[in-house]
Amino acid sequence: MGKSSWFGVIAVAVLGFLCQYFALIWSPPEKTMGNLVRIMYFHVGSAWIAFLAFFVTALFAVIYLIRRNLLFDRIAVASAEIGVVFTSFTLITGSLWAKPIWNTWWTWDPRLTTTLILWFLYVGYLLLRGTIEGLERRARISGIFGIVAFADVPVIHFAVEWWRSIHPQVIDETGFNMPGTMIFTLMFAFAVFFVIYLLLLVLRTRQETQKQRMFLIRQGLQELRAKAFDDSVRGES
Amino acid sequence: MAWSMFWTLVWKELRTELRGGRLVASTLALGVLLFLVVGIALNGASNLTADWSAGLFWMVVFFATSIGMTRADVKEQELGGSLGSLLAPIDRSLIFYAKWFSTFIIVLVSEVGMLIAFLVILNAPVPQNPLHFALVVMGGTLGLTGIGSFLAQLAGSSSLRDILVPLLLFPTTIPLFIALIRLTVISMVPTVSGAHIWVEVLVGYLVLFAVMPFLLYETMMEV
Amino acid sequence: MLILEGVAKEYNLKPILEDIHLSLEPGQVYALTAPNGSGKTTLLQMMAGLVRPTRGRVLWDGGPIRTTHRRHFGVLLQQPMLYGDLSASENLAFYARLYGLPQHRQLVQSWLEQVGLGDTAAQRVRSFSKGMKQRLALARCFIHKPDVLLLDEPFDGLDERGRAILTRLFEQRINDGASVFLVTHREDEVRIAARRYTLRFGRVTAC
Description:
Radius of gyration of chain A: 23 Å
Radius of gyration of chain C: 17 Å
Largest interface: B-C, 30 and 34 residues
Order of helices and strands of chain C: EEEHEEEHHHEHEHEE
Largest sheet of chain C: 6 strands, mixed
Number of domains of chain A: 1
Oligomer: heterotrimer
Strand content of chain C: 25-35%
């Protein structure tokens, strides 16, 4: 890691502590949920970041397909991986939140269901990508899937939403009125998560670049070895 | 002009299937088998609600189709025939649409058999509105085979292809899946309301996945 | 006229072809000799529009190659590019229709006889011997009277009869003003070419 990355990590650490303070101590408890509401700052924050990450993946997939520079592909995959991680956070915190409030680990809440489908879509993206030979082909194929998957997201969202609203409502999901302090904390948490996302994106993309460089070095080495072998065979004959 | 090319491509696909492609046979066999397994899993339940049976019907159709989808292209790569089609002076997305249409016909044929198994083995309620039901089945199959053919081509170069096609197909088709189940329930029990929303979802989905290959297929077929 | 302008192709970021300039003029025969694994097939596929170049451009009549321009190309690769489940006549009819050729029934029949497959027209291609598949591939390649022929080792795998047929088809096309690009390693084929090139380490050089 370079100097700038260390600066980023330290900044994230400071912001993270501030965020914990706002979320856990400074912001007030909610009327009906009490202190349980505090998980919202992490839950909603990760959900937004996950969505943003998948958007970035689709965006850079489009840019890759136009410009054909593998850097854009590396950004796309880095973003998808981070997106999957944040989707997992969203699902886990959602589950933890649902248990005390709705007395169940899983509900067919439209947003929760959509998030789980998203998780599968992008795990599929990573699997697809991981099993294709050839850097250029891999970038092209996974890019196409990244675009298709993201175009599908709104359709999934509305379909699941309508599906649940037509069914009898088991769980009453009333939006609660948030006081200004809570909104501020939520926005602050989102901003912190966004900085974390950016930092991870930079680091992961850089790592992917190094991986590619290693791959090329290894390839060059193999060629040199093959050439040396050829020469030695020629020398003997 | 484009139409005659399209039919030429469809003719080639269907002719290949008739000469021992066995996609109909394998999809149908798998579908009927799945109904049998589901029946046993439900402990031979004799009357299921419309909600359940509609869901089971589409689950079996989706599963059988997604498994069958991966086998379709092996044959035409054997002697390089697919390269020959790519060289022809036709828009390459036409190749996709022809593949889509022929897979649609093939799956539709095997669905007739699956439907009989569904009514007999699961003792499912006969749809009170057969015309609506037929339209729903056709629309659903159109959507399923469209995205299925696209994903099968997309995952063609993956070493995990046989598993990946269902794995990618199921999450992408969830909206279609929900819409089809709801519309099927409505065709079975016409008193249930809300059809227009699901027709919208179905049509929207079909439009989305009919247009996207047109934009992306050429890129996908590059070597 | 087909022109390659500084074309390059990379796979896994490793250059396979680098900075290739070629122009194929009507009525000329070009021969390229290349060792195996040198990217000759990739070069041919790129000229035929099957492979997208990483850099550079392939031009037809001064502009990028459009869908309709593909009818000017006749391509013969290592694979015969046929459908095993279709019969010989069905295969040819399929391509004839894709190329929008009129009266394809008579056309297919005459081509099958030209390549000596008139008796086996109704048999499935899968059951054909290698030589028969190659002869059918010749018919597929020439049926639409292409203006540019891109041939990958065309005489390989052909029987005596097939070679005679190919030589004849070849001369016909050249007399009609087609340009021929031939990838080969055989001396006698190189001799018929007006211009000769070699492909080594991804670069094409005249010789």
